[in-house]
Amino acid sequence: MDVKYLHTMVRVKDLEKTIAFYELLGLKETRRTESEKGRFTLLFMAPPGQEDCPVELTYNWDGDDGLPSDSRHFGHLAYAVENIYEMCDHLQKNGVTINRPPRDGWMAFVRSPDNISVELLQMGKPLEPAEPWASMENTGHW
């Protein structure tokens, strides 16, 4: 029996802030569905050329009082990046907290505006440890 991965869905509180966050990671909108009757928007975003691996952002128009919560029950999304130091610098310069800096040149964690943990992994081999990342402490948790 064949199985094919379709997407991961996360609920979001502020659709525009969340779109901006995933755009900082390099994802692009691939599809959008708006339901007047159901009062929700489903928005799919994926890295260019990987449209078959999207994250589905579900936005309930009337709000969701449970968001943002700690969201630890979810786990995390993971993306491989070409240069983890450049990506973390880019995110930080745009106001994203680096919760777990890439001290090892391999892995970092950030959180979306809805507290979804996002793991960033260096493509290929880890980069050599470099400042300011090598001595940066964790901020919060991921």
Mean pLDDT: 92
Task: Please summarize the sheet with the most strands.
Answer: 4 strands, mixed
Would you tell me the structural class of the helices and strands? Answer: alpha/beta
The coarse silhouette is globular
Write out the strand line-up for the largest beta sheet, numbering strands in chain order. 1-4-3-2
SSE string, helix = H, strand = E?
Answer: EHEEEEHEEE
Query: pLDDT below 50 for ≥5 consecutive residues: which ranges?
Result: none
Helix content: 10-25%
Please report which band the strand proportion falls in: under 5%, 5-15%, 15-25%, 25-35%, 35-45% or over 45%. 25-35%
Distance between the termini: 35 Å
Estimated radius of gyration = 16 Å
Summarize this entry quickly.
With 142 residues, the protein is α/β, with parallel strands linked by helices. It has helices at residues 15-24, 84-93, and strands at residues 8-12, 28-35, 40-46, 55-60, 76-81, 98-100, 107-111, 117-122. Strands 1-4-3-2 form a 4-stranded mixed β-sheet, with helices on one face. A 4-stranded mixed β-sheet has the order 5-8-7-6, covered by helices on one side.
Q: Which structural traits does this protein have?
A:
8 strands; 142 residues; alpha/beta; four-stranded mixed beta sheet; 2 helices
